[in-house]
Amino acid sequence: MTGRSSEIAPPHDEWRDAAARYAQDGFLSRIDILKREEADDHRARMEAVEAQIGSLHYKNKIHTILRSPYELATHPLVLDIVRALIGPDILIYNVFYIVKEAGSLSHVSWHQDLTYWGFDRDNLVSMWLALSPATPESGCMRMVPGSHVRGPLEHSPTDDVTNILTQGQAVSGVVEQHGVMCALQPGQASFHHGWTLHSSRPNTSADRRIGLSVNYLAPSMCQTKHDRDSAMLVLGEDRFGHFQADMPAQTDLEPDAVERHGVLDRRHLEIVGTE
């Protein structure tokens, strides 16, 4: 996949300062992206689709069949921040909702995102955008500051059915007190490095914990597991062509897009489900 996409203004000084904090800590948190009413609208759009087709939890590449996640993933402010973190050329690799139902035992063990993704380098950042309150009670993310500088750590697959990670992978020996709670209100986002240790606890609140997760790559990154992986150029230029091109949703649930999405979702699960 090669080509150019639209450009936005250079990063503001505040995002250069944020990039310095990100380089030190491996994450940023409580970044205001949307007004509350905008976040509520995107939640309503998401839940209206769920009423039609069922749960959207962990449906990969959801931006190829629904407009709302595509609009959020390409929000100008978000792209401005991402550019400050990984550079001017940006691919969207994956977009998916993560939903913890009220009272759910679902949790996420301490892990690093890049462990099973098959990339040859780590110029990647993930955004987690809250569409409902992400609080300690609802199981907000926890990050270990500075853990990204340690690089890849050993993960062990588990058979814990309440762990929502694909392989239930977990890093042992993490000191719980080192984790920083990243509570978010609807419309706020966090950004974290691919090697930053993070986890989340069960949702003990009375509301669903709904977040949109977006993975952004620099085009220089390459998939090592096979040559059929895909991404979407959203800013700058792709001079490498390492990925097939994903197509953005034009309308919700367009039949041809839904058919293509089934292939993309299965392919991604094949990638992350293998060593």
Give the radius of gyration. 17 Å
Globally, the shape reads globular
- The fold-level CATH name is Jelly Rolls
Reading off the top of the CATH hierarchy, the class is best stated as Mainly Beta
The largest sheet is: 7 strands, mixed
**Shape-level CATH architecture:** Sandwich
With strands numbered from the N-terminus, the spatial order across the biggest sheet is: 2-8-5-10-3-11-13
Class from helix and strand fractions: alpha+beta
Fraction of residues in β-strands: 15-25%
Mean pLDDT: 89
Terminal Cα span: 26 Å
Total strands: the figure is: 13
Q: Structurally, how many domains make up the residues?
A: 1
Secondary-structure blueprint of this entry?
Elements: E1 3-4, H1 13-25, E2 27-32, H2 36-53, H3 67-73, H4 76-86, E3 90-100, E4 108-111, E5 124-130, E6 141-143, E7 180-182, E8 188-193, E9 198-200, E10 209-217, E11 230-235, E12 237-238, E13 244-245, H5 255-272
Parallel strand pairs: 11-13
Antiparallel strand pairs: 1-12, 2-8, 3-10, 3-11, 4-9, 5-8, 5-10, 6-7, 6-9
Explain what you see.
This protein is an alpha+beta fold and 275 residues long. The chain has one domain: Jelly Rolls (Sandwich), CATH 2.60.120. Helix content is 24%, strand content 23%. It is built from five helices and 13 strands. The strands form three sheets. It has a seven-stranded mixed sheet with strand order 2-8-5-10-3-11-13. The longest helix is centred in the first third of the chain and has 18 residues, at 36-53.
Distinctive features:
single chain; 275 residues; alpha+beta; Jelly Rolls; 7-stranded mixed beta sheet; 4-stranded antiparallel beta sheet; 5 helices; 24% helix
